[in-house]
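Predict the 3D structure for this chain.
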Amino acid sequence: MKTSTSRKFKKRNIIITQNKSKSDGLMSGLNLDIIGKKFPEVIFKYDWKDVVLYALGIGAKIDELQFLYENYPEGLKVFPSFACIVGGAGLQLNRLGKIDFSHFVHGEQAIKLYQPFSSSGEIVCKTEVENIFDKGKAAVIHMIVSGFDTKNNHVFDTKWVFFYLKGGGFGGDPGPKTDPLKPPEGIKPDFSISYKTQENQAALYRLNGDFNPLHIDPEFASRSGRFKDPILHGLCTYGFATRAIVHGVCNGEVKSLKEFKARFTSEVYPGEILTTEGWKINDRYLIQVRIDRNIVLGNAYAVIE
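Done. Predicted structure below.
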């Protein structure tokens, strides 16, 4: 028998209705009972300062004034990947169970836009755990957060894929195999844009709400055994790529970018140069983001209209 309590709390610009419940469906700390269940709705409130902070966090410069100035003559524009900030507020990862987040890895991210963001407003986030697949040594968690404005107009869908490295082996469905998306060999990209990240890029981006010490604390980063220094947020790299697509393909028109999906393939350190490349194949662009030493976003595509 489940018992529950309900309380409301407000944190920064997020209002969450939280329900606590007991569950018998825990495997390696992962609550499998949440598959297919909808979480309590989250209301995300934002204004032009949040929009500008995000633009600065993904490297926007003063010549991109339409993304930085609240009194821009044609109105302040919002990069489509701002959906990750809004959608991230709806994730409520604590509902996944009693898990060890040091073994929790963000594997893939996708956004789908139905209309451009306004420069301020309220978004109602609706969240569902779509599935949890069993890969043996890891569980792969697929979550969807959809955003709606106060008139119930659909603004965006965000798809999140997480790898929980201690959560597999529960006898579940291993999930479908995905075909790799690789740029055509020997063919130059249709667009290529390079942006240098700043030494303080992660320190700035974290003010959007991701305060994981992995991105700011050298001692914490070194304890991971994987990184020599704090690394850039994966969603910051994703935002840099979105910015490159908006300028490189969409001529600055945010409404033209309808979808962007990518897999995180390697870490980035603040100060490194990100080069986003795209090849137009049929009705979409195959996207790749690289640094000097590695591919950091792959298996990626963007839909432009």
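The chain has five helices and 14 strands.
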